Amino acid sequence: MKYKHLFGPVASRRLGISLGVDLVPYKYCPLNCVYCEVQSTTHLQTKREAFYPVTEILAELDDFMLDRPHLDYITFSGAGEPTLNSSIKEIILYIKSHYPEYKLALLTNGVLLSNDEVLEEIMHCDVILPSLDAASQKVYEKVNRPQSGLSVSDQIAGLIKLRRLYAGQIWLEVFIVPDITDTPQELSLLRDAIQEISPDLVQLNSLDRPGAEEWVKAASTQRLKEIKSFMSEELRMPIEIIAKIVTPPEAQAPDEEIVNLIRGSLSRRDSTAEDLAFMLDIHINEISKILRVLSAEDKLQATRKARGVCYSWKS
To answer: What pLDDT, on a 0 to 100 scale, did the predictor assign at position 276?
Structure first.
């Protein structure tokens, strides 16, 4: 079966061997983050929809799970916001009842966690990985570029409510954009917000490959260490830096056949991640993760052009 909604399994920095389940169409999201590695959001929305027949998604899962493959997690993720799918609860409960041996993770930007209905629907996930990049409205709008009417105070309130109601693990990702989200004032506000949210783990991230806006740069390792030290002065939960590629020892290397296809294609002409996903008929998230690994290995040259960030293979 050719999968439309599943991708991977991929070697995830945060979740080990992860099977991705994509519940929303490409680039449907309440935010248009300047650092997004799948580039700008094309459908900025908070309205929830079913998008696809649930039976279509479950049929793919059943087919993939026939051999009960080794997975560390089944993960709701993709190139959009999973909680926009109004059928997510039905899919979660199906996985938990039919494949209880697998842990279930949700990657979310956290915007819809202020919705009580959404909170109730995601309670059966084993780990929820929300994001919080800013604690002031000014920085939130500059970095996350939310749909009109969204406030960071509501997002923080949703995260606080999640912690109060949810018994599972919460791993909070904080994306550092140098000179914007890491100013003394913003870091102090972020630290206060994280104290209230009380996640089980804080993960500091920064740019690995070109984001949606050319001016966004990666934070240095030294700067991330300084931020970790600052956060640790008041916060009691573990704080780790995940900004650089660290492949778990047990994780699979990128599929050699796919790498060879990418190398062959990029040796002939430069292409965006979207070009590669279309030409090779591989999910954009899987392509993105492989491009991140190849970039870290210094095998790719990235150039920003009118059609987006284009990659070529270094000779």
So the answer is: 82
For residues 132 and 267, state if they share a domain.
no
Report the predicted TM-score, pTM, of the whole model to 2 decimal places.
0.82
Flag whether 168 is in a domain: yes
Mean pLDDT of the chain: 90
Q: What are phi and psi of 273, to 5 degrees?
A: -60, -40
Evaluate whether residue 187 is within a structural domain. yes
pLDDT at 262 over 50: yes
Contact 302, 266 (CB under 8 A): no
Supply the pLDDT for residue 252: 52
pLDDT score for 39: 75
Number of domains, the chain:
2
Q: Are both 37 and 97 inside the same structural domain?
A: yes
Instruction: Look up residue 126 and give its two tokens.
Output: 């084993």
Residue bearing the bigger pLDDT, 207 or 287: 207
Q: How far apart are CA 185 and CA 294, in angstroms?
A: 36
Place of tokens 């102090």: 188
Range of the domain at 69: 6-252
Residue 290 lies in a domain: yes
